[in-house]
Write a structure and sequence with these properties.
alpha/beta; seven-stranded mixed β-sheet; binds pyridoxal-5'-phosphate
Length: 410
């Protein structure tokens, strides 16, 4: 028989969301007819805006004509989309990029998961704790870790705790690391990083020859003026960072699929014989070998997010979610909860009352008021004692959930 990649056996079974489903199922089976409100989801719920649907339709029809038909497009994405990205997402921030510094893809999950392939197997990796699990699991698969310990952490990875004590902005690693995954605005904590702290990370990376993998999937939810929207707002970041963006949460593309990575030409790695190697060129080689591009109608749909009507419709959806976030944040804190996030991201991260564990609090919410959230410990050991509520639900459900949680006392 063919021998398998044993690194896959180190992976902990996808525990968090199956366990949530199991507990919800058990509850609904023994309490038929009771309405359960789900504020656990990390997925959008509003339909695609009309300008986007229209662009997708027109592009599909174009594909059905002999003059408009398109086969394989450029693997890196059509320039009509890349131009809009540069003009609307980066130019207003004073960031200049050339077209070949952007790689369009079918998702940031794939991008943040695949990027590790172009780095050495013995690279030292730092991740935050709690964390978006993709960064960790893909490095486990690649063999960059040992087994996971009783504390839920894999040996060989450097974990950077993010708790209320450090304002959810991690301390610098004590040892030298090669790659650092940062996600701001953050999933799951909903918190942000300050420009000055991000500058310190860029300086750290410069000093230690590290590369920062910056996941900005929630950039569009930023509402406060001084929160960095891109790591490239920081001087010198082009030499030490790449950035991941996605249309998923921004424009409701979770089921439509379109994202991109920005890899500046200034970003270099090093080969074992000490030669500088362009990360942009390395990724270009990888991307064009393993990927054949996002479909034309979807790239047209993504480009429509930048039209005047598209911008407004996308903005309205985000404002809807952020109003939900405000209702949750204010409603819950009025009831004495310590809450974080929810101002520049669609997630509210609350401290469980009376030092309850994340799962005990989950069970209490489910059994007493039928509200489902996500236990913080599911995102890493430093998430223990925290709980995530998502703002992606329907307004009436959000209002009902908040008022029900308000009836609880611990
Ligand atoms: C949702 C999300 C993404 C986006 O993933 P897609 O594959 O583009 O849908 C990326 N990073 C984080 C942290 C996310 O929560």
């Amino acid at each position: 028989m063919a021998e398998i990649n044993e690194n896959y056996l180190k992976l902990k079974a996808g525990y968090l969301f199956p366990e949530i489903s199991k507990r919800v199922k058990l509850f609904t089976e023994s309490n038929p007819g009771k309405k359960v409100i789900r504020l656990g989801i990390g997925d959008v719920t509003l339909p695609l805006p009309p300008s986007i649907v229209n662009a997708m339709k027109l592009a599909s029809e174009e594909m059905g004509t002999s003059s408009g038909f398109k086969g394989y497009g450029p693997e890196q994405g059509y320039s009509f989309l890349i131009e809009e990205i540069i003009k609307n997402d980066y130019k207003p921030l004073g960031i200049t990029l050339s077209q070949d510094e952007i790689f369009v893809s079918d998702g940031s999950k794939c991008d943040t998961g695949n990027i590790q392939e172009i780095f050495a197997v013995d690279s030292k990796i730092a991740v935050t704790d709690p964390v978006y699990p993709v960064y960790v699991d893909t490095n486990v698969m690649a063999g960059r870790t040992g087994e996971s310990g009783v504390d839920g952490r894999y040996s060989g990875l450097v974990y950077l705790s993010c708790t209320k004590e450090n304002g959810f902005q991690p301390d610098f690693p004590k040892e030298k690391v090669d790659l650092i995954y940062l996600c701001y605005p953050n999933n799951p904590t909903g918190t942000t990083i300050t420009k000055s702290r991000l500058k310190e990370w860029v300086d750290y990376a410069k000093k230690n020859n590290s590369i920062i993998l910056y996941d900005a999937a929630y950039e569009a939810f930023i509402s406060e003026p001084n929160v960095p929207r891109s790591i490239f707002e920081i001087d010198g970041a082009k030499e030490v960072a790449m950035e991941f963006r996605s249309f998923s949460k921004t424009a409701g593309f979770t089921g439509t699929r379109c994202a991109f990575i920005v890899i500046p030409k200034e970003l270099n790695g090093i080969s074992s014989n000490g030669e500088k190697v362009s990360i942009n060129q390395l990724w270009n080689r990888r991307h064009t070998t393993k990927f054949n591009g996002v479909s034309y109608p979807i790239q047209k749909a993504a480009a429509a997010c930048y039209s005047d009507s598209g911008k407004k419709e996308v903005r309205d959806n985000i404002l809807y979610y952020m109003e939900n976030a405000k209702i949750i944040r204010e409603g819950i804190s009025k009831n004495g909860y310590e809450v974080y996030g929810g101002v520049n991201a669609p997630y509210i991260w609350l401290k469980t009352p009376k030092s309850m564990t994340s799962w005990d609090f989950f069970d209490a919410l489910l059994n007493k008021v039928q509200v489902v959230g996500t236990p913080g410990s599911g995102f890493g050991p430093s998430g223990e004692g925290y709980f995530r509520l998502s703002a992606f639900g329907k307004r009436e459900d959000v209002i009902e959930a908040v008022s029900k949680i308000g009836t609880l006392s611990f």
